[in-house]
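Dear U.,

Please find below the material for section 3 of the report. The protein was modelled together with nicotinamide-adenine-dinucleotide; I have listed the sequence and SMILES used, followed by the predicted complex structure.
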Amino acid sequence: MLGSGFIARFYADTLHAQRRKDQIISVYSRDAANARRFAEDYRLARHDTDMEKTIAAENIDAVIIALPNHLHEEAVLACARLGKAVLCTKPLGRNAAEAKRMLEAVEQAGIFAGYLEDLCYTPKFLKSLSSVKAGALGRVLWTKSREAHPGPHSDWFWDKALSGGGAIIDLGCHCVEIGRNFIGKSVRPVEVMCWADTQVHPIEAEDHAIGLVRYENGAIGQFEVSWTFRGGMDLRDEVMGTEGTIWLNSFLRTGFDMFTTGKGAEYVAEKAESATGWLFPVGDEAHELGYPHMFSDMFDAIEEGRPPMETFYDGYVVNAILDAAFLSAKSKNWEKVILEDWRGDRQTSHEKSHISYNEQYYLIKKEILPNGDEKLILKEKTTGKVVQETKRK
Ligand SMILES: NC(=O)c1ccc[n+]([C@@H]2O[C@H](COP(=O)([O-])OP(=O)(O)OC[C@H]3O[C@@H](n4cnc5c(N)ncnc54)[C@H](O)[C@@H]3O)[C@@H](O)[C@H]2O)c1
């Protein structure tokens, strides 16, 4: 485990939970006391303040990168050099150029590389994705993914040079990848329109943004990200297709509501702002956030010699989309997604199939009115004229 902070602990809590078989052997932290504390808390055999030495150790099969964004590249390159399988937290890079260098390094070294995008592994997400892939929603037209909370927990997040940006890079990476999965990873993201602002905090980076990612097949992926939201961590997704809709609420409304006057106040959930009054705790936080399924997929993939569901290539595409979002927020125009390395479909058409009502008409809409009549809105195939027909009850 490289890093001993917030996400390293979530990962360790997940891996060492219940009766899981994958075990952390050692931890690297630049701070010796933190390394020791982490090793004690999770009963690890070793801890060190030397990153290369930790990666190079003989009995290590895989390295988990849980370091701040500006250290991902250095850590990935070290794993490639030392020939160790690598699992890197999100975002892969601070920008697409950085992510591409990491992708190329692991591919040239021939090592396993997984992108730890946990929110694409939550039980709700996995079930939704399987329904979407089975066609339950028809053709996906629009996705919306929202992550908003009162801001991150460490200094480096707030420093644009170290993090690569504010809420867009920190939270947008999740939202964009959620949308990509629903729309289809083989569909090329074409361009992005994004509004971003620094509404509250004294920082250079954006603390609030809304973006639209347009895909080649006509689908649109919306992301809403904020470090200014009050009231906890808001994680919601929506998918709208020609045959159906999905609404997901992954955190503030999981079906667990509790009221307390504050006696016995304890940890409630990530980014919860209060421990009194009406609260929205989360039963098994790691599970709701996707970590167990994510690590199962990663380690199964290593054993089965297949790529994981979330790869470094996915991380690179996400970074390229976010690069376009940053450009658009500045230019106030749609900006092209620059993908020097595109591995998906070469061309995807806008497949619009119209429903034929009879030889003469297309069916636009059918509705039962309050009086029980059925109203049909039709379009004449030859003239294009729109007409309506009412069938009395
Ligand atoms: N849902 C998720 O997947 C999720 C959630 C939170 C964070 N993250 C990601 O995990 C990474 C780490 O975030 P975090 O929340 O754990 O941050 P953190 O600040 O809690 O922990 C970062 C760790 O890196 C160490 N560190 C900081 N600067 C360093 C330096 N210059 N050299 C060596 N070590 C240094 C810190 O001491 C700490 O151990 C980030 O890339 C972040 O985006 C992912």
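For the text of the report, you could mention the following: The pocket of nicotinamide-adenine-dinucleotide is lined by residues 3-8, 29-31, 34, 66-69, 71, 89-90, 116, 118, 154, 156 (CB under 6 Å).

Regards,
Y.
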